[in-house]
Amino acid sequence: MRLSFRSGNLRLRLTLWYGTVFSVLLLLHIGVATYVHYRQLLAQGFRAANEETETVEGLIYWTSDRKISVNEDYFNHPEIRFRLDRLLEALAPDGTILYRNKKLNGTELGGAPLQSEGIGSYNERTLKLSDGRNVLVVSHFHLLNGRPIILRLGFDEAPLLANVMRFLIVLLSLAPITVMVAVALVYRVTSSALSPLSTMVRRAERITAERLNERLPVHNPSDDLGHAARVFNELLRRLEDSFTQLRRFTSDASHELRTPLASLRSIGEVSLQNDHSAAEYRDVVASMLEEVRRLTHLVDSLLVIARGDGGQISLNLSVFSCLDLIREVTDLVGILAEDKQQTICVTGNAELTVRADRGILRQAILNLVDNAIKYSPRESEIRIELRRLSDDMAEIAIIDQGPGIAAAEQALVFDRFYRTDEGRSRESGGAGLGLSIAKWAVEVHAGSIGVLPGSAGGSCFYVRLPLEH
Amino acid sequence: MVSKVRYIRIQRQFLRCRQTMQILIVEDESKLAHALQQGLEEEGYSAAVALSGEEALRLIERGAPDLVLLDVMLPKRNGLSVLRELRRDGFHVPVLLLTALDTVDDRVLGLDAGGDDYLVKPFAFPELLARVRALLRRTASAPQPALDFAGLHINLAGRTVTRDAVALELTGREFDLLEYFMLNRGRVVSREMLTRDVWKETSRYTPLDNVIDVQVARLRRKIDDPFEAKLLHTVRGIGFVLREE
């Protein structure tokens, strides 16, 4: 439940983030739009003022007292009546006021003439009048009846600003609705996009060590969540595999431990049933000690395997000749072959060297040679051949003349506790761990191990190892 | 001339010396502890048992033993911490660590803490006895040029063997094996001891039992079969012993 709450939280957080970012962008958008609108109105205003200036230039005339007057009767176009609001000032180039209309209420429109004001084109600017009004002012240099004047025409900016304000208010009042609609949509979309996640979480909560066979649902294999689900499913599969392996190993190991324990128990119980002589008791104790020995070896082997599985063994690497290693092994166990009048024939190139943990690799070869001796008949030959397989691979083949291994069993002999022939192998002291230890020892050196039918009957166990150059 | 009284006194001192070698067994598994105690006492040592580290420290302070067998995995107080305290307090008594942990790191840790030797459970009792003897031997016995036992004579320098003046042809391994049996004559030798001391095998996981059995059988064929009195005996369940019946 806690997890699914978090996914709800994620949805909310995503929506909040989106809402915030969207609002900021929307406000920015409104700000820019309003500013552009204002600039456009301003440009329009100036354009109108320019046209108006031309009109006014046609309406002014000199009065007898060397001032200027305007023919105000002109306005017969109702659509330009707003121009009655115009402010008008005429100056001589030396700054003498020639005319100010009433709308100015006596304030000046821009003060003294600027440098070459209005000559060549219309001079456009905004001003603040002394009575507080903001105005757009256009000046134009004009020759009236041959005498130069500067004509200044102004409009109050207030109506323009009011227009901009209205525009802004409309946009702003629409903004909350827009944001709300967008956020609601995003919330819905996020919910439906994240709903597979909630199902995955609910399913994942059910998965425990006992129910590792469950898998997460994959809604859409090509999207991100589907990909994540597939990756998790792959992880679950690997976990399930190793759990199954571990469980099987534990149960196999327990069964293997039971056999010597059962012997121990029976030997002890039977010996206590009746009175026996000291010599007989000695025999009983000795027999029990033999079982203890088997148990000890079994536990030692299990420890090797457990450490190998746990990756706890650090390799003590050195470079050595494969042939040396083979000779070391045959020197050690050769006596067992001699005892069965078997001959061990070793061939190979002494220059093939590997980089490996000698002790661990020796264990692998030892187990293979030991098996070959164990399963080969008396007076047979065991061949050990070392050869270069490719530029960077060496192969050690151990070829016996034993009963061979059935094709169906060839893949299984390296499994833990696997025995081709239950009775006989236990008789010869193995718990079915020797080959799986050998397999581990070879694979930890990036090599491979396997078994093939031998050419003259029997089996050919091979170990392939990367060569050291 | 030494008076009789004085002779007896010397003999008593010697006997006391021999018999009162004190060994302290620190082991929480009381079954194992008492089995070891009985085994050591039968070998002529005097053995005491401490079931915890605290008890061990108390006993050692009361009277220092000649040797301590110390279990590493004790409840409450780890054996290594007991050992460190002992060494810090200036006790130089030899300590043989007993433990179920057998990685190289565990070994190094144990020896670093001040242990003199290290034995992994489950161990063979003859092996324990051999280690105890080695730790109690104050001076290393000087290498001898030859060993003699019940008509067997081996010349260590020339590596030759005779029995009742009959020369025996032994292989190198058979000679090493016989030398080891001669050095431990009268004592049971386990296969673990042979694996380590004669085959020089360092890994516990290389079971050489079959190899050892075949090798011992061959040695027996050479030194015993042609003669009336058999010397090399198998002690079933434990190992072998070289002794006169």
In short, what is this structure?
The complex is a heterodimer of chains A (469) and B (245). By secondary structure, chain A is an alpha+beta fold.
Question: Can you walk through the features of this model?
Answer:
The complex is a heterodimer of chains A (469) and B (245). Chain A has 469 residues and is an alpha+beta fold. In chain A, 52% of the residues lie in helices and 19% in strands. Mean pLDDT of chain A is 86; it is low at 1-5. A five-stranded parallel beta sheet of chain B has the order 2-1-3-4-5, with helices on both faces. In chain B, strand 1 (22-26), helix 2 (30-42) and strand 2 form a beta-alpha-beta unit. Chain B is elongated and about 60 Å long. Chain A binds chain B through residues 282-283, 285-290, 292-293, 296-297, 300-301, 303-304, 307, 312, 332-333, 335-336, 338-339, 359, 362-363, 366, 370, 429, and chain B through 102-103, 122, 173, 199, 202-211, 214-215, 218, 235-238.
Give the terminus-to-terminus CA distance of chain B: 38 Å
Q: What class, by secondary structure content of chain A?
A: alpha+beta
Mean pLDDT of chain B: 86
Low-confidence spans of chain A:
1-5
Quantity of strands of chain B, as a count:
12
* CA gyration radius of chain A, whole angstroms: 52 Å
Which sheet architecture does the biggest sheet of chain B show?
5 strands, parallel
Secondary structure elements and pairings:
The complex is a heterodimer of chains A (469) and B (245).
Chain A: H1 2-59, E1 60-62, E2 68-70, E3 87-91, E4 97-100, E5 123-128, E6 134-144, E7 147-156, H2 158-206, H3 224-273, H4 278-309, E8 317-321, H5 322-339, E9 343-347, E10 353-357, H6 358-375, E11 381-390, E12 393-399, H7 407-410, H8 422-427, H9 434-443, E13 448-453, E14 459-466
Parallel strand pairs in A: 9-11
Antiparallel strand pairs in A: 1-2, 3-4, 3-7, 5-6, 6-7, 8-10, 11-12, 12-14, 13-14
Chain B: H1 4-19, E1 22-26, H2 30-42, E2 46-50, H3 53-62, E3 67-71, H4 79-88, E4 95-99, H5 104-112, E5 117-120, H6 125-136, E6 146-149, E7 152-155, E8 160-163, E9 166-168, H7 172-183, E10 188-190, H8 191-197, H9 209-223, E11 232-235, E12 239-242
Helix pairs in contact in B: 7-9
